[in-house]
Amino acid sequence: MNYQQMTNKELKEELKKRKLKGYSSLKKTQLIEYLSTGIHPLKKALIPPKMAESETRDSSSGSIGYSPTILAATEELPINQIISGDCIKIMRSFPDGVFDCCITDPPFNMSRKKGLGWAFSSHVTMQEQWDIFAQDDYFQFTVDWITEVLRLLKTNGNFFVFGSFHCIFTIGFILQSLFNRRIISQIVWYKPNAQPNITCRMFTESTEFIIWAVNNESKKAKNWTFNYEVMKSMNNDKQMRNMWEIPLTKPSERKYGKHPSQKPLAVINRLILAGTNEGDLILDPFSGTGTTAVVAEQHKRKWIMIEKEDEYNRIAQKRVDEQFGKLFEDDSENNW
Ligand SMILES: C[S@@+](CC[C@H](N)C(=O)[O-])C[C@H]1O[C@@H](n2cnc3c(N)ncnc32)[C@H](O)[C@@H]1O
Q1: H-run or E-run covering 319
Q2: Are residues 114 and 34 in the same domain?
Q3: Are residue 138 and residue 229 in the same domain, yes or no?
Q4: Among 58, 132, 273, 294, which has the highest number of CB atoms less than 10 A from its own CB?
Q5: Domain span at residue 23?
Q6: Is the CB of residue 176 less than 8 Å from the CB of residue 170?
Q7: Do the bridges between strand 153-163 and strand 207-217 make them parallel or antiparallel, or are there none, so unpaired?
Q8: pLDDT in tens, 201-233
Q9: CA distances (Å), origin 247, targets 14, 63, 171, 191, 331
Q10: From the CA of 308, how far away is ligand 1's center (Å)?
Q11: Does residue 37 sit in the same domain as residue 54?
């Protein structure tokens, strides 16, 4: 077969026939390479080389991409690794339909170039560069990363995305109206110890929202994971409601360094226990300090984190390493 003479459409049809996945955004040369070798062309460039056993145990090097491999199940994907870089570019190199769940806390576009400070307290409003977009750019950025997440999630896979009033309507519109995905619920995270409002011109902001969507057309969505009994048992044997009162991230969870919007382990804990099962593969494309990975490790889920700031990745890696150490200690009685 002469691939050079074939159109992109024909090349893709050929890939589909051979049950090869993840070709939708590839260029012609890459499609041809994929057909010729059977290996996804971007995967070769992205996947970090395998670490020697000694390296996988050495957390002192501080290198990003080091991974505790105890839960790794597939060879192709960088399972249980933190990938440093732009999540849209990195996600584009992953094959379709490989993740069971995505839990993520994207930029909210709530920062101002100059944040507000308060003389009587350490409270300041956000002024992070990674959180500042022009309105149209934010919309396009959100469409782009959600497009990739939906491609990577399995059909009927769970998608939990955080937001505040600054962005939740945009995210909800994109999921519901642009992509016609089924929205199962909106969880309200109520922060009883939220910081006071500096301006006194409005209510004190003390909630965030989590949209729970399922990766299927609204009418077709079915069989999504929801561990009803687990949630009930965590709530004094009463049905778990969608309003969660959980305080802000504890100082003890910030011991390896600070991030302005690190999520409490307790919030992510509920999401992972509710929406995933042991062995599931979870994606967080805006991983920050790796809170999703820490909880995933705790509950024997697999994970892939993506984050563009190396400083946050260093914190995340230390948190994951600590968790890995704990798992190792906990299992010591099993005579490994
Ligand atoms: C709201 S924070 C996530 C915090 C995280 N949930 C935690 O508990 O630490 C969003 C993160 O997305 C990162 N980020 C922003 N744009 C990104 C991009 N295009 N690719 C990868 N990471 C990005 C930021 O650096 C920031 O750490």
Answers
A1: helix 310-330
A2: no
A3: yes
A4: 294
A5: 1-46
A6: no
A7: antiparallel
A8: 999 999 999 999 999 999 999 999 999 999 999
A9: 53, 32, 24, 5, 31
A10: 7
A11: no
Do both 82 and 117 map to the same domain? yes
Contacts of 236 (CB under 8 A, 6+ apart): none
Using DSSP bridges, classify how beta strands 207-217 and 99-104 pair: parallel, antiparallel or unpaired. unpaired
1 CA from centroid of ligand 1 (Å): 45
Based on the fold, state whether residues 65 and 175 are members of the same structural domain.
yes
Pocket test for ligand 1, best of 145, 189, 287, 310 (most atoms within 8 A of CB): 287
Residues 167 and 92 in one domain: yes
Q: Report residues whose beta carbon is within 6 angstroms of any ligand 1 atom.
A: 86-88, 105, 107, 130, 259, 261-263, 286, 288-289, 291, 306-309, 312
Q: What is the mean pLDDT of residues 246-251?
A: 97
The CATH number for 299's domain is 3.40.50.150
- pTM for this predicted structure: 0.76
Neighbouring-strand partners of residue 190:
207, 245
Residue 285 has a CB neighbour count (10 Å cut-off) of 25
The total domain count for the chain is: 2
Cα 196 to averaged position of ligand 1 atoms, centre (Å): 24
Looking at residue 70, what DSSP letter applies? G
